């Protein structure tokens, strides 16, 4: 009745599944009978007051432009004991009368001045709110101040894609119930009240304990002083970008994270060896996903595959500026399934994948390696490769010998020179004729 369609190549967890039509109809009918979720999508839906504790609003322009409709308050359409409110594209102003609201989700909405004020005032009254999602929202020309000091029971905060929103870091980190924080820009160190100063009140410096936090990102660090005060023993996923010249506090912080599974670190000016060589981290054996953006500072140091976690399944390298081909080292990572090399991560002209290398790799992406001219794939290399993306490698003369990769099912060629595309379609046709799906998009 339930069919697994796709599993994650990282941890083999189910990401997509199909439900039999009979089971789906039964679930929908049962949900309607029990008023699991009431959907407001047309004007007729607003005639009767809903008894559901969960309400979703997906309003079209015809309804939204109705003057009489806009004058109404949402409190007329839903009970004040509603637990979940979901808005897609349009958001009806609501007040803080929903004292028991636990979930608020707003997607794809542009707030004007009045709506910003209404949202801020409403959030201050939602003392039981556990999940706040503001995804792909825009708050106008001035920044929206998120009143996290009033959200004492918040567990999940998701702000991906939203612009012009400020998260006061200290009040956020003061919420002991936090479990997941996902954002495009959580800044730390710009405000004098951040971390060390706010923790110093004539009694010395106190740590900031977040015992339940599992996900934190993206943390923008303008001043790393006091960063080591963060105590997050159960953190699984960390994403940060360093705008300072110091790494000591960051390394100290990571060295305390014994449960870390995913780590993302970015700094264009350079990544020190203390960050790249993960052997000193207590999560060395646990790390599965690693994202490193920035030029590697490795003067006098020879790269060694042991620097990387032994069970690493996904690796992304951006702007690393390798002078030597990284493939001979990376192909020794026994568990690697996804490899992304982007934006001048390699500055050489030739790249070679040798026989027996990358024996678990399933997805490979090469993006804007602007000096790469030749790529060789030896027979027996990447025996499990399924998906290959080549994008913006303007100097690459031809596709490699992909006939040596019979498992390849999906080839994507983006923003490649016209000469390259013509060669692929003609004299190199024998290299790609076994691939079921080939996509050409954009060109120089």
Can you offer a commentary on this structure?
The chain is of the alpha/beta class. The protein has helices at 21-33, 61-64, 67-71, 113-124, 169-173, 195-199, 248-254, 273-276, 327-330, 418-425, 429-432; strands spanning 2-7, 14-19, 38-40, 54-58, 84-88, 103-107, 131-135, 144-145, 156-158, 165-166, 180-188, 208-209, 215-221, 230-231, 237-242, 262-266, 289-293, 314-318, 338-342, 350-353, 363-367, 374-377, 387-391, 410-416, 437-443. The strands form five sheets. It has a 17-stranded parallel beta sheet, with helices on one face. The protein has a two-stranded antiparallel ribbon with strand order 1-2. It has a two-stranded parallel ribbon with strand order 8-10. Strand 18 (314-318), helix 9 (327-330) and strand 19 (338-342) form a beta-alpha-beta unit. The longest helix has 13 residues, at 21-33.
Brief summary:
It is built from 11 helices and 25 strands. The chain has a 17-stranded parallel sheet, with helices on one face. A two-stranded antiparallel ribbon has the order 1-2.
Observed structural traits:
11 helices, 444 residues, 17-stranded parallel β-sheet, two-stranded antiparallel ribbon, alpha/beta
Could you outline the blueprint of secondary structure elements for this entry?
Blueprint: E1 2-7, E2 14-19, H1 21-33, E3 38-40, E4 54-58, H2 61-64, H3 67-71, E5 84-88, E6 103-107, H4 113-124, E7 131-135, E8 144-145, E9 156-158, E10 165-166, H5 169-173, E11 180-188, H6 195-199, E12 208-209, E13 215-221, E14 230-231, E15 237-242, H7 248-254, E16 262-266, H8 273-276, E17 289-293, E18 314-318, H9 327-330, E19 338-342, E20 350-353, E21 363-367, E22 374-377, E23 387-391, E24 410-416, H10 418-425, H11 429-432, E25 437-443
Parallel strand pairs: 3-4, 4-5, 5-6, 6-7, 7-9, 8-10, 9-11, 11-13, 12-14, 13-15, 15-16, 16-17, 17-18, 18-19, 19-21, 20-22, 21-23, 23-24, 24-25
Antiparallel strand pairs: 1-2
């Amino acid at each position: 009745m339930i069919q697994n369609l796709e599993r994650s190549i990282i941890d083999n967890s189910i990401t997509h599944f199909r439900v039999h039509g009979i089971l789906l109809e039964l679930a929908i009918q049962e949900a309607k009978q029990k008023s699991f979720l009431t959907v407001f999508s047309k004007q007729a839906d607003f005639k009767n007051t809903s008894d559901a504790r969960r309400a979703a609003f997906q309003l079209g322009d015809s309804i939204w432009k109705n003057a009489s409709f806009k004058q109404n308050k949402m409190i007329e359409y839903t009970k004040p004991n509603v637990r979940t409110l979901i808005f897609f594209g349009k958001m009806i102003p609501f007040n803080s009368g929903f004292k028991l609201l636990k979930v608020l989700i707003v997607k794809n909405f542009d707030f004007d001045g009045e709506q910003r004020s209404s949202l801020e005032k409403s959030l201050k009254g939602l003392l039981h709110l556990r999940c706040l999602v503001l995804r792909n929202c825009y708050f106008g020309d001035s920044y929206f101040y998120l009143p996290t000091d009033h959200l004492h029971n918040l567990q999940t905060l998701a702000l991906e894609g939203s612009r012009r929103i400020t998260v006061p870091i200290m009040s956020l980190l003061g919420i002991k119930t936090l479990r997941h924080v996902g954002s495009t820009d959580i800044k730390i160190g710009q405000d004098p009240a951040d971390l060390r100063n706010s923790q110093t009140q004539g009694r010395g410096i106190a740590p900031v304990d977040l015992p339940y936090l599992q996900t934190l990102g993206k943390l923008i660090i303008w001043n790393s002083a006091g960063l080591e005060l963060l105590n997050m023993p159960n953190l699984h996923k960390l994403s940060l970008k360093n705008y300072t010249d110091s790494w000591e506090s960051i390394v100290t912080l990571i060295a305390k994270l014994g449960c870390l599974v995913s780590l993302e670190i970015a700094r264009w000016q350079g990544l020190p060896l203390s960050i790249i060589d993960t052997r000193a981290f207590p999560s060395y054996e646990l790390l599965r996903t690693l994202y490193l953006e920035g030029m590697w500072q490795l003067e006098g140091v020879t790269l060694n595959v042991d620097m990387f976690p032994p069970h690493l399944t996904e690796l992304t390298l951006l702007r690393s500026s390798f002078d030597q081909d990284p493939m001979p080292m990376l192909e020794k990572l026994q568990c690697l399934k996804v490899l992304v090399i982007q934006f001048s991560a390699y500055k050489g002209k030739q790249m070679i994948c040798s026989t027996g290398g990358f024996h678990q790799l399933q997805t490979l992406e090469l993006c804007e390696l602007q000096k790469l001219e030749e790529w060789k794939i030896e027979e027996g290399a990447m025996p499990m490769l399924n998906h290959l993306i080549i994008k913006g490698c303007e100097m690459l003369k031809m596709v490699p010998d992909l006939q040596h990769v019979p498992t390849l099912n999906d080839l994507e060629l983006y923003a490649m020179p016209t000469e390259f595309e013509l060669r692929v379609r003609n004299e190199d046709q024998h290299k790609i004729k076994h691939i079921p799906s080939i996509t050409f998009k954009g060109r120089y």
